[in-house]
Amino acid sequence: LAVAEALARRQEEPERAQKLLRELWKYCRYEGCLRNYILRYFGEERNEACGKCSACRDGSLWRQVYKYFTI
């Protein structure tokens, strides 16, 4: 029984890793408050911007890169 459970866990690892990578990619591409994104990931809903994360202070990374290369 322990061997079967260990094999089942091993098969789930790549799927879990892919899911976590997708979530990380969504976080990197998110345009809004990053604090709210993290809170929402853990089930807490907030709508007001924190004013402290890099997205609130400077805009999203994608916007910063775009501005840098279009000037």
Q: How would you portray this structure in words?
A:
The protein is mostly helical. The protein has 4 helices and no strands. It has helices spanning 2-29, 34-41, 54-58, 61-70. The radius of gyration is 18 Å and the shape is elongated. The mean pLDDT is 84.
Summarize the helices and strands and which ones pair or pack.
Layout: H1 2-29, H2 34-41, H3 54-58, H4 61-70
Tally of helical segments: 4
Q: Helicity range of the residues?
A: over 70%
Q: Biggest sheet, in brief?
A: none
- Catalogue the unreliable spans: none
Radius of gyration over all CA atoms, rounded: 18 Å
Number of strands: 0
Report the sheet-strand fraction. Answer: under 5%
Round the mean pLDDT to the nearest integer and report it.
84
Shape: elongated
- Cα distance spanning the termini: 62 Å
User: What string, H for helix and E for strand, traces the elements in order?
Assistant: HHHH
The secondary-structure class comes to mainly alpha
Task: Looking at this protein, list some descriptive labels.
mainly alpha, elongated, 4 helices, 71 residues
Summarize the structure.
The chain is an all-alpha fold and about 70 residues long. Helices cover about 70% and strands about 0% of the residues.
